Structures are given as structure tokens and as C-alpha cells.
Amino acid sequence: MDATKASRGNPCVWCVIVNWNGWRDTLDCLASLREQSYGHLKTVVVDNGSTDDSVERIRREFHEVKVIEAGKNLGYSKGCNVGIRAALESGADLVWLLNNDTICPADTLVKLVRRAVECPEAGLVGTVLLYAHDPSQVQAWGGGRVLPAIGYVTHFTAPVVFGKNCYTTFASVLCRREVFEQIGVLYEGFFMYYDDSDFCLRMQKTRWKIVIAEDTAVLHKEGASTSAGQKPLMTRIVTVSTLRMIRRNSIYAFIGMPVFVALRLGKRVMRGQWTGAKAVCEGVMEFIREPMP
After folding, report:
1. Is 0.85 topped by the overall pTM?
2. Which pLDDT score, from 0 to 100, does residue 211 have?
3. 5-220 belongs to which CATH class?
4. Rounded to the nearest 10 degrees, how much is the dihedral formed by the CA atoms of 80, 217, 157, 230?
């Protein structure tokens, strides 16, 4: 394949969506993709072992969408990689990673592809995300900054120049095929969270850059796959993912990991949040017990 194909003409785009018991949001997202004005778009949904009839509903209402049944909950990174590999095997020049709880205006992909064509050095093209419940508020202006030493991430809410230790959120991002071929797919040690910042930190060690399609505006419901009842579980997952991110990306991990745990645990103890404190400890033990993939 011509390595510069995605920088000219009408590159083939595959959109990758991961679904887990979220058919309502996924159907809304797919409906917005069906309205995209960009003509060279195909979509694959990876279903992570849903038990809510997601697969049947998606196939019935969107027969043009390729559905891959993972059979179990692989987590976001592994599920996403299933879709990425399928897209690349099908000849995708660009891969659009998209959360299932997003709604994309009809011109979104046109703008993302245009930005990729304008900037051949761009490995990732980020999107401006707005809160779905209040579109007047910016959730993330393309992404944010990550401090690998302590696992801290923050969102930009206004235009900035993306540089070192910046990342673009994978709630909606257009990825160039050559980037995956050069540095690989998402790190599968993250069940949820940090997959985007980790990938961006890896990519920044190469020639590829992050750019933002500033004229995009994707609505993001954020956290539609989780609920309040899952909060201890999410605390444990975030703890494990943060420790793995620090370990992978910081030369000061031996300092950063204890500091992160002390801050995360201390805050919950001081507030009397004992269930949360227990979840942090469980996350630490899981990190220690299970080897890094």
C-alpha cells in the first residue's frame, strides 16, 4: 500500500466502536455515522460479551455495520484492538476510534480527514468534545496533558499547541494506518483508561504529531457504560491502570507509584470513604499480583 495514500484523495476510513451492554447509546452513535457526508466510511462494532441483546439490535437496525462478537468483556483496549486489526486487514488508510456514547454531526469525518490530508505529519487527529447534556460546555479541546511520573491527566478546554506530554482523547480520534504499523496497537494492560495517553506518549517518540480538527464538535455523554453502583469497581480499575501507566512511562516510577497510592488512599481515608479506600488497596494488590502484559 502507498504509505502516503491517506494524505491525498479520498482515503478509506474504518470507524471502530466498542460496545458493552450499551445498545441504546450505540444505536444513537451509529445513526449519526449513517448521516456522515464522507463517502468512504465503513464501521465495525466490537461487542464485549453484552447480555442485553446489543448484537441482535445492532445487526437488525444497521445491516451495513460489521459486528464482531468478542464473547466476553475484554475491556476497552483489547476490544478496540480487535476492531483496529479488523480495519487494517480490510485495507483501512485511517482508523476512527469512537466511543459508543458519542453523537457526531454529519460533517465530522469530512473535517477530520481534511485535517489529516492537510497535515501529513499528523499521526493522530483529535476532536473537540462537548458535553452532551450541555453542548455549550467543552469537555476536552482535543485532549489534554499527562504527567507520567504521578499518573495525572487533565483536559484542555481551550485551544493550545500540542507538545510533549500532551495526548488526544480516544473518545474520538482519527488514526493513521502507518502509526499502528510503526508502534503497534493499544497497550492491552489497560482494561479502561490511560489507553489514549499511553499511546500518545509512545507515538511522540517517533516523527508523528498530534493535531486537532478545531472545527469539529462531537457530543460526548461520558461514562455511559458505567453507573454509580460500579464506583468501587471503577476505583480499583483506575488504580491498576494508573500504576501501569506510571510504570510504563516514567523513569521515576519508583517514586511516582507510592506517591500516587498515598494521595489516592489518603484522600479517601480522610473523608471516611472506607469502601473507596478498600477498592484502592484491592487495585494495588492486583497490580502487584498480576504481571504487566
Report:
1. yes
2. 96
3. alpha beta
4. -40
